[in-house]
Amino acid sequence: MTTTVLSSPYVSIDGTDFTDQASSAVVTFTYEALESTTFGQSARTYTTGLQNNEITITLMLSYGAAEVEAKLAGILGTNVQVIVGAESGTASATNPTYTMTGYLETFTPINASVGALQTVDVTFRGGALVRAVS
Fold first, then answer.
1. Cα(37)–Cα(22) distance, rounded to whole angstroms?
2. If you ran DSSP here, which 8-state letter would residue 90 be given?
């Protein structure tokens, strides 16, 4: 079984490279299942519906004019382009890149605990997810 350890993933939100402030990225490719069962069938059948994708990114919270908090506060409630790559560099068969214009519904600007780094999980929803391999 082949396994891969990602050493340098790429994360961009609305044109800003947040690779150096991201600690996790999850890309979920989903097609809604539409039931297509008809009379006389002995089992349920389904067909492909609309895409309903998500990209969730864990970012280290930082404050300042061009930092994580300011960027996320500015795009809350809007659709923006999000790009996540397995590694930085050109997309290829061994380095797929996923691009989606998704909606940022919620944002937690302060997530603090004593003695811990502040992080925030942001989820972008909706939009077609495009996989690039070249």
1. 43
2. S
